[in-house]
Amino acid sequence: MRDILKKQPPIFWAAVIFLLLVLAMALAPGLFTSYDPIAQDMKSLLQKPSSAHWFGTDNLGRDIFARVVYGARLDLAIGFFAMLVPAVFGTVVGLTAGYYGKSIDAVIMRILDIFTAFPLMVLVIAIVAILGSGIRNLFIAIWLVGWREYAKLVRSEVLVAKSSEYISAARTLGYSNARIMFRHILPNVVNSAFIYAISDIMLCMLMGASLSFLGLGVPTPTPEWGAIISEGKSFLTTSWWIAAFPGLMLALTGISISLVGEGISKRLQKNG
Amino acid sequence: MEELTYIVKRILQMIPVLLIITFIIFFGMRLIPGDPALLLVGNRASDEVIAATRARLGLDEPLFTQYLLFLKQCLTFDFGESMTLRAPVTELFAQKAVITVSLTLMTIVFAILISFPLGYAAGVKHDSKIGSFIDSLSLTFVSVPEFLVGLVIMLIFALRLKWFPVGGWGDTLGERLHALILPAFTGALGTAALVLRNIRGNVIQVLDKDYVDFAYSKGLSPWKIRTRYIFKNVLISTVTLLAMRMTYMLAGSIVIESVFALPGIGQMMLNAILARDYSIVQATVYLFSIIVLLMNLLTDIAYSLLDPRVKLN
User: Is there a contact between A120 and B251 if contact means CB atoms under 8 Å apart?
Assistant: First the structure.
């Protein structure tokens, strides 16, 4: 772990610091703003950024800075938890398919084929349509499709690792399949899944924001960056600040996650 | 001959996959709460009208009969009439497909024009300032959502500079091409960023190969080395990636079409889902799945044509 952080460029640390700041916003939004993100104030509609409202207000007089700060919680949560479940499930599926091979592998691969044939966005939107929009259903939709990549990635690595000598050694020693799979193969194949998982956090976050932008994700008036941008879309020329600030946060968070992911992956690949 | 057997085999393998897909689509759609007949005629319609509408839509048949009818539609590509738009679904799909396919093609052309030269430059000059600049640019566009990029582009080029329409689709060919430029450019930036990173990585790898050193010492012209040795090797994985992105774009056009108000397949799909128009959603997801499966097959074939080491089997 310490190796990963050694000799990273300044931009890596800038990204880490920014992400920690966003994380702090998500955990304790009250420390950053005293405004209520959903309280409407009819006396201060569409106000420009000022000392009272740092990021201005929207057409309902809500404080954009407060909405952006509170929005961090949902966007980070969507990114992280939408990644976590499929990452674990997909890794186990890939491990099983690759390790046992033969008919188990064939069945799993056919199921994967079916899931791959559905275009991702259409599938997610169709699932959200079936279950109705909302945060819980957004998770279910991404969980149902997100495991494909992990399964494929881990399976192909397992196929390589399986033929290594340490695996035949473990077999000769009479270790159980589960022990060989999880104690011997998994640590050797988990790197690529881990690297993918970091960028997957970003991809899931963007997917959640995109769905909310389309009106299929987070319901109003819940603060979420994609949803706020969507609300600000009709005010682009007159009140640019409504969409601009959540947009900037979304972009910077996405870029920061990518930078951290790239930094870590370079280090892991060098070591491996 | 061997190739032909392989292609036939792959197409035959698609049949069970498609069958399961039809099953999932059909019963998935039926899980959506809300009665389409009720949505169509409104809550205040009399029971007779509702019953008549249900009969007209075939919703009074047993579920299994409805599924068989859907299977028949899938085989003949005749999906009947749209429940909400009162027009044949196949015709609607064809109309909207013109927009989405043109958008995708223009996006791919833009993406190639952006990513090939930049990716190559970033690979050749990967330890210089230009290389790392192109690198950070591509990282940015990979990490920012399309709808955000689209809004910024729209703000600059349509709202402020007024060079392009804010959205919509024109009546003449010129207007239509003009209307497609901004959405295509938006999509191209994300795709180009991915392709560029891939080209860059490949170029760096190939430059390290002994046969490139050998070609130089043999006295081949740099141009020949670039086209014959480097470019050809880079092309293989790039074609795969572009094909993958193309299927993604055909299906993922929902977001860009929504930002630029383009009445393509994505928009039709979104509206159909919201209006519970089973016929359109079923047909669209089914046709998309076929497109994806065929694209996967085409990619594998292209792979073996470009790389003699890859055998089709």
Answer: yes
Instruction: Provide the shortest C-alpha distance from residue A163 to chain B (in Å).
Output: 22
**What CATH number is attached to the domain comprising B193?**
1.10.3720.10
Look up the ipTM and state it: 0.85
List of residues 6+ apart from B58 with CB closer than 8 A? B66, B69
Q: B263, B95 in Cβ contact below 8 A?
A: no
B153-162: long-range contacts at Cβ-Cβ below 8 A with a sequence spacing of 24 or more? B153/B182, B153/B185, B153/B186, B154/A236, B154/B182, B154/B259, B154/B260, B155/A236, B155/A237, B155/A240, B157/B182, B158/B182, B159/A236, B159/A237
Q: Are A149 and A176 in contact (CB under 8 A)?
A: no
Look up residue B211 and give its two tokens. Answer: 């046969």
Asked if residue B291 belongs to a domain, the reply is no
Longest dimension (CA), chain B: 87
Can you tell me whether residue B173 is helix, strand or coil? helix
Total residues found in chain B within this entry: 313
- In this prediction, residue B181 carries a pLDDT of 93
Name the residue facing A130 among B31, B247, B258 (closest C-beta): B31
Least confident of B60-74, B132-146, B267-281: B267-281
pTM to 2 decimal places? 0.85
Q: Do B33 and A119 touch (CB under 8 A)?
A: no
Range of the domain at B197: 89-267
Q: Which letter does DSSP use for residue B81 in this model?
A: B
The pLDDT-based confidence of A25 (bands split at 50, 70, 90) is very high
Number of independent structural domains in chain B: 1
Q: What is the pLDDT of residues A202-254, one digit of tens each?
A: 999 999 999 889 888 888 788 999 999 999 888 888 888 999 999 999 999 99
Residue B201 lies in a domain: yes
Residue B223 and residue B128: Cα distance in Å, rounded? Answer: 21
List, for residues A35-73, the tens digit of each pLDDT value. Answer: 899 888 888 888 889 888 889 898 888 999 999 999 999
Is any Cβ of chain B less than 8 angstroms from the Cβ of A248?
no
